[in-house]
Amino acid sequence: MKATAIAHPNVALIKYWGRKDEKLRLPTNGSISINLSEMTTTTTVEFSENYKSDHIQIDKQNLFDEADRVIKHLDQIRTIVNSALKAKVVSENNFPSSTGLSSSSSGFAALTVAATTALGLKLSEKQLSVLARLGSGSACRSIPDGWGEWNDADTSEGSYAHSIFPKDHWDIADVVAVVSSEKKDISTSKGQKLAQTSPFFEARQASMNHKLNTLKIIITNKNFQKFGEFVEAEALNMHAVMITSSPSLIYWSVGTIQLMKQIKKWRAEGMPAYFTINTGQDIHILIEQKNVKKLICKLQELMYVKKIIQNTVSSGTFTSKSHLF
Ligand code: PMV
Questions:
Q1: What confidence category does residue 184 fall into, taking pLDDT thresholds of 50, 70 and 90?
Q2: Assign residue 280 a region: left if phi > 0, alpha if psi is -120 to 50, beta otherwise?
Q3: C or N terminus of the chain, fewer CB within 10 Å?
Q4: Is ligand 1 within 6 A of the CB of residue 279?
Q5: Burial of 44 (C-beta count, 10 Å sphere; 0-12/13-18/19+)
Q6: How many angstroms separate the alpha carbon of residue 137 from the centre of ligand 1?
Q7: Is the pTM of this model over 0.85?
Q8: Ligand 1 pocket check for 278: Cβ under 6 Å
Q9: Domain residues of the chain, as ranges?
Q10: 180 close to ligand 1 (CB < 6 Angstrom)
Q11: What ligand 1 atom has the least distance to the C-alpha of 14?
Q12: 172-311 — its CATH code?
């Protein structure tokens, strides 16, 4: 009863910030994302009578806070098949976690697929996405391939992500610039609860349906300038809600601000590149494939950029025969 799954984190182009149901992790609006090809979480889960308790190892460490959340998720999955078997879970990220690169999206997507497969459950993509969402909202978008949309819904069964364009729909790169390895001080889960305290939250919500439709048209027509301007403005809109919530959430570091300004400067000099940022200091730079090399050379000259990860749009979560133990 052992299975391994590999998932890619996703980056939202239209973000999910705020929930209408905390327990079910139902978002207050729909969102759109892409899966990131060079970043992975690999997770092996084994259920066995030999285990007297659940053993959780993430990135070679036994992390107790996060273990709690993993065990809760295992419990939800065990309930489906009425199993009391304990599990060993080993999970490895090939990228920094808790710095804004959405390791919880790939983490809970991989955990969901590995654990359900290990228990012999045969679930549809939609059911896996619903289940992954209960672990971490954005994880539902790492299940389907390519460009994903997570619908706004009022029920748990209705709240899942599906693919709206295949991974090779458009030659877009997402170049991640890690500006610091410092872990964020307020987790995304805690931060989400504060969204509605911002005076700007209602205004943001009122615009979301229109934004979802507009972005889908832009992606269909592959207009990169409109795409970049839209995605960057959306990220800043979400951060405006974060910064003005009570207490305020400022996830940026000095390096984040330096790089945002630098990207705008490069744009003014003729290189079309745009940024998006999640809950953390690291930056995603969206750029057409033909300009990636130029961007990487420029990033390499910046002392404050510690690591660069060059992604294309990738597949969803899949199983693997190479187990971690
Ligand atoms: O899924 P969570 O609870 O980790 O929240 C994700 C929040 C953002 O990354 C900021 C936005 C998003 O839609 O991914």
A1: confident
A2: left
A3: C
A4: yes
A5: buried
A6: 7
A7: yes
A8: yes
A9: 2-167, 172-311
A10: no
A11: 13
A12: 3.30.70.890
